[in-house]
Amino acid sequence: MLEDSLKMDVNEYLPLRDVVFKTLRQAILTGEFMPGERLMEVTLANRLGVSRTPVREAIRKLELEGLVVMVPRKGAEVARITVSDLKDVLEVRCHLEEFAATIACDRITEEEKKEFNVALEAFEEAIRFKDLKLIAERDVAFHDVIFKATKNKRLLQIINNLREQIYRYRIEYIKDFDYHEVLVKEHRQIMKAILDGDKKAAEQIMRTHIYNQETIVIKNLKKQEDEAIGAKKK
User: Fold this and answer.
1) pLDDT tens per residue across span 23-65
2) More confident position, 45 or 81
3) What angle do CA 194, 185, 121 make, to 5 degrees?
4) According to the model, what pLDDT value does residue 20 have?
5) What pLDDT is attached to residue 171?
6) Do 119 and 220 contact (CB within 8 A), yes or no?
7) How many angstroms separate the CA atoms of 160 and 178, rounded?
8) pTM
9) Distance between CA atoms of 120 and 84, rounded to whole angstroms?
10) Pairwise CA distance, residues 45 & 105, whole Å
11) Given phi > 0 = left and psi -120 to 50 = alpha, else beta, which region is 184?
12) In what helix (H) or strand (E) does residue 71 lie, and over which residues does it extend?
């Protein structure tokens, strides 16, 4: 459940309903609202300091995006992550990132190589802090260096369109602290392959990197399902 961290970034140029929508959407994508968590209009309105109307409108928009589901006799809930959705998103991500890694081998500049090293060090620092939100942000920053190095505007556009869907699954796999050392190792291997200009290695390591994430999240989803079934039987 969200604590007092739920704050609106008020934008005078946006209608209040859109500000509430963006606030709730971000909270879902970053894992502040957990899958299956109920979204109570009154509670959210009080926390955000608004009336129920913009909250209700925001929830409807979130439902259209598939981030919220309406459950009979319960109301709005954060949509649960399914294995099918996970595989769809990561399948696309895998092909895009493999492609980006191979192109980056040829096109990365000396300045971007420095950015790559900085991004890796920042990611490893976040891992040491065990700050999940910071880890996710710096994981994004690491991969963004690769995308930037491609110099392919269309690829960047496609990635940006998928960014928020990918972010939700990224939060899920970094919750597994046992996997953090593997993440660091894979990031180092990806960077080395790209800096060495080794396209084959960059592609293979990136594929393994994404596949491992899929495996971790599916394992955790299965565990959550088993725990939910066990709780119902008690």
Assistant:
1) 999 899 888 898 899 999 999 999 999 999 999 999 999 999 8
2) 45
3) 75
4) 95
5) 86
6) no
7) 29
8) 0.82
9) 31
10) 49
11) alpha
12) strand 68-71
Q: Where are the alpha helices (DSSP H) in 180-198?
A: 180-195
**DSSP secondary structure of 92-109:** HHHHHHHHHHHHHHHH--
Contact 63, 72 (CB under 8 A): no
Whole-Å CA distances, 229 to 88, 216, 223, 232: 25, 20, 10, 5
Is residue 15 classed as helix, strand or coil in its secondary structure?
A: coil
Q: Is the pLDDT of residue 4 over 90?
A: no
Q: Which residue has the tokens 């939910």?
A: 228
For 105, the token pair is: 């081998």
pLDDT tens for 92-140 read 999 999 999 999 999 999 999 999 999 999 999 999 999 988 999 999 9
Size of the chain in residues:
234
Tokens matching residue 60 = 């409807």
> What CA–CA distance (Å, rounded) separates 159 from 217?
21
The H or E element spanning position 9 is none
The amino acid present at 59, given as its one-letter code, is: I
b/e per residue, 217-234, with b = 16+ CB within 10 A? bbebbeebeeeeeeeeee
